[in-house]
């Protein structure tokens, strides 16, 4: 029989948590100090035979299972994990693996947990892909977002041409007059005549028809989009020339995004808008009034100010509906929500539906300690008549906390001293244990049974 000391720290901790006990409570029941329990759980003290007996009697545990040494099991599990092809080019002698498992059980536990999470995530991704319809199925929305993100949502040729063109349009007296000088008549017509369209170009009669129920900023935007699709056609085509997309839908979504970018650049030309941003300290409502643009258009434009040498605060932008569906996502701030997420209920973008039209600010802290500042507000589209459907969505802008004092919304704040709301990217990727708003457990974590203890949180997690 082996006489080597038993270091069963992780197992003792797991038993204690499953029983819903604090270190103090377990120590009182076993007649030892809480600090000694802590040392055992950190594998800095062995579990003595006397203490094993007390554990078995106090909690009616099987003595044989409790006393079995986990070091060999740790070594085996670690060796199995390290045989994964991802580690194939690393020299990992069996003796070193065994030494790590025996001498550093905490490190071993962390590595096994990380590897288990990675495996489960890979499996989940594989299942997600296999569930897509058709042999060549793709995600056109994701592909379009990645195309824009890879270029940091900045397209210099479009910006340069739009800036030049915006001067001509302003000099002519506005987009409608500019188009008239080019033999295109602009007409604002009622919805029944437009037959479901809000903008239509009649090429035969050289007429641009626009829904007359749109707001002034909405009308101007539709005129600028027409100019983008026609006059800036070559600049838009130049951006995507030579690119290969998985589907025509992805290509059309990219082209639509670039036309929207061009329209924003026409309404808010880079140099003039950037100067106004500095003067107004990123006050979106003030900028909206100055440029005759909607709140959402201004928010969108703020994500594009990435001209080398003339950059402004980098922002992440997201637009969601009341059900949490993300309909637009743009990143210039390195916010992990850009790749996935946006569904954390603790983020105020989901709360601002309760206060429509009001700007809600919030300091955020991600699980890795990164801090961001966010502002969110609802925006409305559609409507324009008694029986016309109206859609309300919420948009949010987020920037790194260190940039927040440059914004009028966080003037005078100390980003290091403010209390931030702990949020996660999405429940499936967030490993925060103390979260009462959690909807589902994260990938790679097993949940504890609630036979003995039911916590305030929806799930309690096992150690591995």
UniProtKB/TrEMBL annotation:
The keyword Signal appears for this protein: no
SMART domains: HTH_XRE
SUPFAM superfamilies named in the record: lambda repressor-like DNA-binding domains
Origin: domain of life: Bacteria
Presence of keyword DNA-binding: yes
InterPro entries cross-referenced by the UniProt entry: Cro/C1-type_HTH, HTH_RamB, IrrE_HExxH, Lambda_DNA-bd_dom_sf, ScfR_C, TransReg_Diox_bact_type
Family the entry assigns: Belongs to the short-chain fatty acyl-CoA assimilation regulator (ScfR) family.
Protein's UniProt name: HTH cro/C1-type domain-containing protein
Organism: Novosphingobium taihuense
Record lineage: Bacteria, Pseudomonadati, Pseudomonadota, Alphaproteobacteria, Sphingomonadales
């Amino acid at each position: 029989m082996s006489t080597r000391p038993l270091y069963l720290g992780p197992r003792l901790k797991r038993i204690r948590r499953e029983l819903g006990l604090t270190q103090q409570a377990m120590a009182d029941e076993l007649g030892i100090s809480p600090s000694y329990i802590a040392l055992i759980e950190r594998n800095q003290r062995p579990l003595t035979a006397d203490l094993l007996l007390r554990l078995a009697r106090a909690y009616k545990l099987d003595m044989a299972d409790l006393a079995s040494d986990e070091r060999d099991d740790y070594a085996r599990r670690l060796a199995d994990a390290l045989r994964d092809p991802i580690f194939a080019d690393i020299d990992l002698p069996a003796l070193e693996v065994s030494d790590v498992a025996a001498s550093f059980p905490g490190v071993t536990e962390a590595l096994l947990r990380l590897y288990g999470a990675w495996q489960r995530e890979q499996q989940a991704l594989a299942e997600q892909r296999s569930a897509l319809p058709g042999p060549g199925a793709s995600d056109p929305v994701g592909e379009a977002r990645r195309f824009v993100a890879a270029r940091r949502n900045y397209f210099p040729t479009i910006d340069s041409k739009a800036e030049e063109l915006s001067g001509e349009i302003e000099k002519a007296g506005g987009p409608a007059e500019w188009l008239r000088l080019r033999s295109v008549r602009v007409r604002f017509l009622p919805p029944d005549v437009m037959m479901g369209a809000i903008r239509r170009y009649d090429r035969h009669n050289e007429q641009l028809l626009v829904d007359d129920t749109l707001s002034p900023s909405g009308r101007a935007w539709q005129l600028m989009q027409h100019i983008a699709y026609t006059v800036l056609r070559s600049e838009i085509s130049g951006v995507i020339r030579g690119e290969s997309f998985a589907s025509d839908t992805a290509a059309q979504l990219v082209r639509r995004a670039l036309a929207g970018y061009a329209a924003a650049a026409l309404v808010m030309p880079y140099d003039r808008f950037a100067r106004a941003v500095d003067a107004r300290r990123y006050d979106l409502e003030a900028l909206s009034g100055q440029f005759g643009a909607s709140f959402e258009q201004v928010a969108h434009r703020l994500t594009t100010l990435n001209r080398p040498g003339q950059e402004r605060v980098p922002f992440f932008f997201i637009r969601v509906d009341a059900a949490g569906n993300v309909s637009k996502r743009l990143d210039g701030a390195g916010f992990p929500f850009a790749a996935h997420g946006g569904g954390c209920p603790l983020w105020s973008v989901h709360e601002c539906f309760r206060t429509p039209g009001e700007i809600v600010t919030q300091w955020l802290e991600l699980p890795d300690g990164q801090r961001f500042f966010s502002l969110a507000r609802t925006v409305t589209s559609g409507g324009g008549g008694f029986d016309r459907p109206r859609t309300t969505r919420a948009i949010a802008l987020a920037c790194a906390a260190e940039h927040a004092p440059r914004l009028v919304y966080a003037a005078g704040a100390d980003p290091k001293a403010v209390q931030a709301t702990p949020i996660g990217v999405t429940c499936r990727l967030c490993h925060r244990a103390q979260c009462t708003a959690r909807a589902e457990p994260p990938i790679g974590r097993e949940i504890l049974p609630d036979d003995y203890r039911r916590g305030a949180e929806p799930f309690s997690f096992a150690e591995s």
